[in-house]
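sorry for the late reply, my laptop died twice this morning and i had to redo everyting from scratch. anyway the thing you sent over, i finally got around to it. pasting the sequence first so we're on the same page, its 354 residues, then the predicted structure underneath. double check i copied it right bc i was rushing
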Amino acid sequence: MLETSINIKMKALKVFPIAIVLTILGLNYSTVNGQQKQAINIAFYNMENLFDTIDTPNKIDEEYLPSAKTNWNTEKYTNKLANMSASILAINNGKGPDVLGMCEIETEIALKDLCKQLAKSGQVYNYVFFEGQDERGIDVALIYKTALFKVSNKHSYIIDPATIGGDHTRNILYAQLQAKKGTPLNLLVNHFPSRREGQMESEYKRIAVAAKLKNITDSITKINNNAAVIMMGDFNDHPNDKSMSETISGKLKIDEVGNSDFYNPFWKLHLDGLGSHKYKGEWGVLDQILINSNLTKNKTGFVYSSNSAKIIKNDFLLETEERFKGNPKRTFAGSKYLNGYSDHLPVSIDLLLE
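ok and here's the structure:
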């Protein structure tokens, strides 16, 4: 009888060093201070209009229906799922992220279909999702590898429209993921109000949402001083803008991070001229992942892996047409169908787990 692949892998335990075997099994490990630590990849990705083809009541989804000028049909929806799955799986050296925050997800149906598409590659994800208040119906979501985590708590925080000029914007998604070794991660996924009205004219909206986010994180650490807290999202502000550097108290340098501050490793990438999004020919880092002080000091069982912050910029995610060469390749350019990915690039960091 032929041996199964898992039996072959388990027999390797008798032959190879443990680090090699864990690599075979698809787990990343690093050696820190002579100890093996498992690397956990945390990522964020703006999916740019992952809409299904169904007309959902009370959502402004007319642009993504078969009757629209875009002719958003089953074929295009299937292509979008396949493309976004490919770009997600390219994160974490081709293994896909262990945890992925996302924005611009229209429905739970679309999120389920994405997870089914990812499962075809052998990567099994579950998700956390809440219907939000955004008028277009684009919501935030979180997926995670079921082999590594389970959900121990989740909540959706609604933004009071009165604080942002009467608009309805995306909720803040909270999920507490429990690692198999018992260490919880507190994650908050965000999509701050856009700059559509102008950066300065709309800044107060992002500051208001940032204040709500900071209040949530302060509440988490008040309950548990050693809590591991990660905030991620498309913040529609750069790391040095007021909402991020002052309201949230994101810091450029890790040694500047106090107990109630956050370390923003994407600030340096922004200063280096890199970006996750391109606007009028200029790259900027709107997509960021920030960690609290406990994750910089190894107080939680997890610790930030130095210099691991990156913007995923695989060639296949970029335009090749001369006029737009090097820009993120979108699904549409206006009404022209490009069969691309997103107008944003994914970002990620690594944590080390003992």
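The chain has two domains: 1-32, 37-353.
thats about all i looked at so far, will dig more tmrw
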